[in-house]
Amino acid sequence: MNILYKITIILGVLFLLYHVVLHRLTKVPITITPKKYYKNLFANFDFKDNLIFYELGCGWGDFMFAVNKLSRPKKTIGYELSLIHVLFIKTKSFLTKSNIEVKNKNFLHTDLSDGDIFYLFLVKPVVKKAWEKIKKECQPGTIVITLADKIDGAEYLKKIPSNPKNPKTSYFYIYKV
Asked: Is the distance from CB of 76 to CB of 67 less than 8 angstroms?
């Protein structure tokens, strides 16, 4: 067995262990919005320029980078608890000269009042907490987009299929504060 193969195996195991420990500490799995879902959302929702966009639980940041390509947000801010993901996004943002800022903090303990649009793809109990926080802190008219889960007790404005060709697809739900 060559040394490169051994290093690859060790790094893979360490990466897996890191995610298992992170999940045990946060009780939140790493969930990623499939890139193929963006197309239909972007075709059916207008991400206006010069707004402040937040992604709460941004993972690898793919959704934020896609929004930045599509529109010209005043600021794009992501919150992520995984340090590996935060470092990756910071590096990618630097290399691509994006105006993306990512914070290694729990968004439930920070001020989100300047946000215009929020994107959430999180577990249902965390989505509910985020919705309550956004309603409390943000201006009327603030938009919240969720994937897969409706927010209990809230009425959505629009429901957009993530993959219109699949009848069993999940949906994006758009809410207004």
From this structure: yes
Predicted model pTM: 0.86
Contact in structure between 144 and 120 (CB atoms under 8 Å): yes
CATH of the domain at 66: 3.40.50.150
Give the count of domains, the chain. 2
Query: For 138-147, how does the pLDDT look when each residue is reduced to its tens digit (9 = 90+)?
Result: 999 999 999 9
CB 122 within 8 A of CB 147: no
For residue 12, give its domain range.
Answer: 1-29
d(CA 5, CA 76): 38
- For residues 153 and 68, membership in a common domain is answered with yes
Q: What are phi and psi of 17, to 5 degrees?
A: -60, -40
Residue pair 22/44 in contact by the 8 Å Cβ criterion: no
